[in-house]
Amino acid sequence: MMQHTVNAVMADERAASFTRRSIKTDSKMQGLRLALSMVDLTTLEGKDSPEKVRSLCRKAIQPYDGQIDPPLPSVAAVCVYPSLVSVARKALAGSNVKVASVATGFPSGQFPLDVRLRDVAEAVEAGADEIDMVINRGAFLAGRIGEVRDEIVQVKQACGQAHLKIILETGELETYDNVRRASDLAIEAAASTGELRGGEVFIKTSTGKVQPAATMPVTLIMLEAIRDHYLVTGVRIGMKPAGGIRHAKQALHYLVMVKETVGDAWLTPELFRFGASSLTNDLLRQIVKTTTGRYSAAYDFSEA
After folding, report:
1. What is the pLDDT of residues 234-289, one digit of tens each?
2. Strands across the sheet containing 238-240
3. Which has the higher per-residue pLDDT, 11 or 296?
4. What pLDDT shows up at residue 269?
5. Domain map (residue ranges) of the chain
6. What are the tens digits of pLDDT across the range 276-299?
7. What does each C-alpha distance from 34 to 186, 204, 273 come to in angstroms?
8. What burial letters (b/e) apply to 42-72, b meaning 16+ CB within 10 Å?
9. How far apart are CA 258 and CA 97, in angstroms?
10. Long-range contacts of range 16-19, CB-CB < 8 Å, 24 or more positions apart?
11. Which residues are catalytic?
């Protein structure tokens, strides 16, 4: 695996430049709607219950109860713990919203490998369309790269037909060089399992349990790894920044970065997601404001 050295100053400056783009009103509305369709609504708390998941699924299918023309899209997916996959599967039946599940000893990734693989297999059997795995950051930082690679390969195989999102937990990787190396490792390990269809594999910044989570420089570095892989292989790997993206304006900045780094082909939920449930209501608030000229109150939007 070729190792890339990241110029940290240039990465920071390039990422900041995307926040200074001017977006016209029509493009802004398109961007807000697109961002909404890319959200993975997520609940990963110890107090999660079947009713909470069903409520989240209702919001996923119909994010806003008011009248908007044209109607708003559903979000991309609902992400839950493996024990609640069957509840989400039933609640989302007949919709185009995917069921995602965290697995592999989320969020630490430190469980024995056989336990992590069983976690994946049971989530897929229960009906998960997508698996969000976490790499073992301790092994990666200790230089046990082959071990991390082998675990990704085995998890990908355990997914069967389910898509795989590989969480790097970039807030624990310490340097931009490590972020790039982990991105390349994850992509190459997943690709080694056989011919990939576009969007079958994502790389993802964070679990949302560690700070810092998603940042624009880190996402840019990961997008550049995706771009470089595509230029060599023609295979499109997906990207998911997760954690810390709370405002619609931030989401638009990320979409500009995607467009200018990997191109329009990635401006679809099949290749780009936001792991940011709190983002949803701000997107809705901005869509309503742009449509009606009036800001809605916070209580106009459900929390789940």
Report:
1. 999 999 999 989 999 999 999 999 999 999 999 999 999 999 888 999 999 999 98
2. 40-42, 77-80, 98-102, 130-134, 163-167, 201-204, 238-240
3. 11
4. 98
5. 8-16+39-57+74-243+264-276
6. 888 999 999 999 988 877 777 665
7. 27, 19, 10
8. bbbeeebeeebbbbbbebbeebbeeeeeeeb
9. 22
10. 16/216, 18/216, 18/253, 18/254, 18/256, 18/257, 18/260, 19/216, 19/253
11. 132, 204, 240
Q: Quote the CATH superfamily of domain 8-16+39-57+74-243+264-276.
A: Aldolase class I (3.20.20.70)
Q: State pTM to two decimals.
A: 0.94
Give percent above pLDDT 70 in the chain. Answer: 97
Please report how many Cα atoms fall inside a 13 Å half-sphere around the Cα of residue 130, on the Cβ side: 28
Query: Distance of alpha carbon 96 from its chain centroid, rounded?
Result: 17
Taking the C-alpha atoms of residue 272 and residue 275, their distance in angstroms, rounded to an integer, is 10
